[in-house]
Amino acid sequence: MRKRYEAVLAALPEIGPRPASALREVLRAGYGARDLRADVLAGVVVGIIALPLSMALAIASGVPPQHGIYTAIVAGAATALLGGSRTQVSGPTAAFVVVLAPVSAKFGLGGLLLATVMAGLFLVALGLARMGRLLQYIPYPVTTGFTAGIAVVIATLQLKDFLGLTVREMPEHFLDKVRALVEALPTLRASDLGVGAATLAVLLLWPRITKRIPAPLVALALGAVMAALGHHLLPDLEIATIGSRFSYLLGGEVRSGIPQLPPLPVLPWTLPGANGQPLTLSFALLRELAPSALAIALLGAIESLLSAVVADGMAGTRHDPDTELVAQGVGNLLAPFFGGFAATGAIARTATNIRAGGRSPVAALVHAAFVLLTVLVLAPILAWLPMASLAALLMLVAWNMSEVQHFTHVLRVAPKSDVTVLLTCFGLTVVFDMVVGVTAGIVLAALLFMRRMAEISGARVSEGQHPTLREPLPRGVVLYEIGGPLFFGAAQKAMSTLEEIAASVWVVILDVSAVPAMDATGLVNLESALERMAQARVLVIIAGLQAQPAKVLEKAGLGPREGLLALCPTLEAAIEVARNTARRGAPATPQEPPLALPEQEPRAHQGSR
User: Which of 58, 146, 178, 292 has the fewest Cβ atoms within 10 angstroms?
Assistant: First the structure.
């Protein structure tokens, strides 16, 4: 019994995701005081970066800044405990902004948190279905295109706070937003622009001086000092800060800034919607939120797995993609019940964690604890952070995530088809949204893949003498060789050629020894060609079936039929059958009906004439 139990445990990695696999692997390998010290230091460094960034991303997503902090604390801790990557750090990310902002504008904070809960369920389902590795096959031009498009949108939206513009109402669509920003240029405030420019300059120049102290800490501290001094020395000077822009209700009193409280339990559907009133939980509401929730889940899955791959490359580790998806799902399920919204693996914070010496999920836990401690102690000081400084930070994040060098490299060296996918995905993401861009990009990439498959799959028709045969083929016998998988357009191309042969021959040898696989489209096209052959009284001999195509034909009920269809294991055996048939002359009209295939709808798309 014990051996059987151990065998079951050994098989668990193959059965499904393993909760907390990364943490268990670290502890199993041995975790000492030196490792803990390295993780604590790395977690503090990441926490310093994550704190202002979480607030900035919450504001960009259309909700008060404290909800970004709650996301970093709850989702960051949950995914670290349960995840499949040793060094990944999760939290709110810039890529989510273009998806979350429309949801919060239409459904309010409650709708955003409810959509996050639904996205968490989708992510858990993806992980349990072991879809982690499949998501890694999304074409590179698609991910590069929509990432660059998101970066452009984020950077553009930050101009409002960076320049101190007054925009009465921000339109929904990107081009309308650009026009609204241009029209608002006369309201530019030099004070906000000065603070934003100074913050951006420090963010860019400080890493050249030293990398021991994170640039955001220095740059945002400078911005806060400038705002405080400006307010003290020139009371009439207007510099928008977190304290002047946001407020909260505590004990019946309205206070500015962010609450000096930890994340508290809350039911997402009891929070206000876009009209300020609590949401009414209903099936209609869930149906409206479902597309956005699915977009959040897919984007979260893609970004978290990309981040985990980057982490593996930097740290020399190996992540479990399915476990990571489940962990991200659990994090997104828990965070909304404490005021947090969508989270995923953050590439920049993960890279910072590794560079700072992080070795295990403990570093991500320390990062979450540091953010919690900071908001409990320093919330009043955080209220002095200027909006322009946070906008400058997000503009730098947008520039880094755009990966301009990779984008231009693809434009220069990639095939035209990949360039088309890249530009399509980029343009649609900017003009419409990420969901439209990614969907169109994947569909276009799939269509181009079909065309490439048709080009790769080769076919050759031979009559009489053949280079690999000692003797010429008998009169009335044609050898048709197919190379490559019978997928999509390749099947139609191959089978349409086969149908054209039927008018002038008695026997067709179909050599499929170089066909490793056949899909449903290939099967349907083969069935259609065999029907044409049967009507023309042509014997088809299929030679060299490999395992997968043979299984497909067996399931379809396509087996040997006298005078119509024969199956031979080798080309030599097929040629011998063809010679015997040729000696007897053209086959007589069959006594039984042609291949008894099931009744089907007309298949105009198969190329039948």
Answer: 178
